[in-house]
Design a protein that fits this description.
About 40% of the residues lie in helices and about 20% in strands. By secondary structure, the protein is α/β, with parallel strands linked by helices. It has a seven-stranded mixed beta sheet with strand order 5-4-3-6-7-9-8, with helices on one face. It has a two-stranded antiparallel ribbon with strand order 1-2. α1 runs parallel beside α4 and α6 packs parallel to α7. The relative contact order is 0.11.
Length: about 290
């Protein structure tokens, strides 16, 4: 690509991505060029005849080559929107998904039931998108964000500062809830998008996911339910009376998870479906 206009660059890039098997080739080509130029998609349309500099051409080609090799768009741009907020994303963290916004929506609804300032815990925080979105919407809320990965926690802390919730959100490296002291900690809500992909299903994941996103954030091994079992067993010690536990689960796991719930400990409020009609968010209340 030399002496190319925006329109010509998009055509060539889209063709390259299609040959590489990228499903949304034109969309990704446009997103990468908009990111490179610091503009939006509307600008690309309105200035289609603008010529790119040699430097822009070289950088754009490198972006397209990375995307053609299967690297997720979000790791190239370093950005992903979630709950109307812009989050920094690196290969150290799972890319936030639209279906996970259901966890935030459910948490915010449950918080309406009490006037007390919420104190939440986000287990496996990754980018911090869940905890940060909740605290951004509820200015009286405080929280603790846990992750087994120290590098993920650094990304989450950057995002917390970016969205002005850093002073209300503490971070700790922890395998599930292990780093916390139940005698000194009591949350009104524990929320988690845990690794839940079964070992047998891992090789069948999309190339972008399997080859680039952190394995530890995707699967705990075995049947994929190990972390969910731990949270169901351990969370009651860290929750206030009638406190809530919210979990994201896999598309085929709702029946298995339902059978795991101890009815003497938990009241199952609902298993909410995502926009595709897939049971996705388990909402539980600790019995009083």
């Amino acid at each position: 690509m030399t002496n190319f206009s925006i329109a010509q660059a998009l055509v060539e890039a889209s063709q390259m991505l299609r040959r590489a098997g990228i499903m949304e080739a034109r969309r990704d080509a446009s997103a990468l060029l908009a990111h490179l130029l610091g503009r939006d998609a509307t600008y690309l349309i309105a200035h289609a005849e603008r010529e790119l500099t040699a430097s822009d051409v070289a950088r754009y080609r490198s972006f397209i080559e990375r995307r053609a090799a299967g690297e997720p768009l979000q790791y190239i741009t370093g950005r992903q929107e979630f709950f109307n907020l812009d989050f920094t994303v690196t290969p150290d963290v799972l890319i936030p998904r639209p279906e996970t916004e259901l966890l935030v929506e459910t948490a915010l609804e449950l918080m309406k039931e009490t006037n007390a300032p919420p104190f939440i815990c986000d287990v496996g925080t990754g980018t911090g998108c869940i905890a940060i979105s909740i605290l951004h919407e509820r200015r009286q809320a405080r929280g603790v964000a846990l992750d087994i990965s120290p590098t993920a926690l650094k990304v989450a802390a950057q995002n917390a500062a970016r969205h002005d919730v850093r002073e209300r959100l503490a971070f700790a490296a922890s395998d599930c809830l292990d780093a916390l002291d139940a005698a000194r900690t009591e949350f009104s809500l524990i929320v988690s998008n845990p690794p839940y992909v079964a070992e047998r299903a891992y090789d069948g994941l999309q190339r972008e996911v399997r080859e680039h996103e952190p394995r530890v954030a995707l699967t705990p091994g075995g049947d994929g339910l190990g972390m969910i079992r731990r949270l169901l067993a351990d969370a009651p010690r860290f929750l206030s009376t009638r406190g809530h536990l919210l979990l994201e689960i896999g598309f085929d796991q709702h029946e298995a998870v339902n059978q795991m719930i101890d009815n003497s400990v938990w009241t199952l409020l609902d298993i909410h479906k995502d926009l595709q009609g897939i049971p996705r968010t388990v909402a539980l209340r600790k019995q009083g």
